[in-house]
Write a structure and sequence with these properties.
Shape: elongated
Largest sheet: none
Structural class: mainly alpha
Number of strands: 0
Amino acid sequence: MRIRTLAAKAAQMLLLFLLLVVLVFFLSRLAPGDPLRAYYGQSVERMSPSARAAAEQKLGLDQPLAAQFVIWAKNALSGDFGISFQYKQDVLTVVGGRWQNTLVLGSASFLLTFALAIPLGIYCASHAGSFADRLLCRLGAALSCIPVFFLALLLIAVFSVQLGLLPSSGAYPVGATGSALGRLRHLVLPALTIALGHFWHYAYLVRSRLLGELESEYVLFLRAKG
């Protein structure tokens, strides 16, 4: 029964993934803008009709959308995800050049989220019902309701614009790879933004689980024995 349940979950996840792939592909093709202009820039306006047709054929834009998707899907199965119209490079090359920053940001925000959530959850559970617990619960719930993009703008306005303590964008100073300290300064705001937007969900989970354990029979028995 457990294997059947896992198989059903895996099938659902695969179906959802395929639906997302189809949706993203067609939305990107139907989005406003001319792919030829994105790829060739202003020179597309000087193209003759025959040159434009040749350019569309080169990029596969002369086919119907359904045919474009089938061709892309077949190529993707062999590891060819096509060309980025914006960067004029292979998609894997574009993504591969950015995975390190994504990995660093994801790891930092993950660690910061739980560095905030676990102590706060433990504190709230050990002071359940107190003024501090109620205040922190309400503040955390309010903070988790703030859209992440608005929270990011707020942090930039405070720490970058007003105080000038942290850079507002980039992974390192412009024109340089930067020192470890410089990269760390650029990492603080985005990691803090992600952590502040999600930590309370985990803090509340820690609080709820601890309260459940504190009310369990073996804890009550140990308390009764002193």
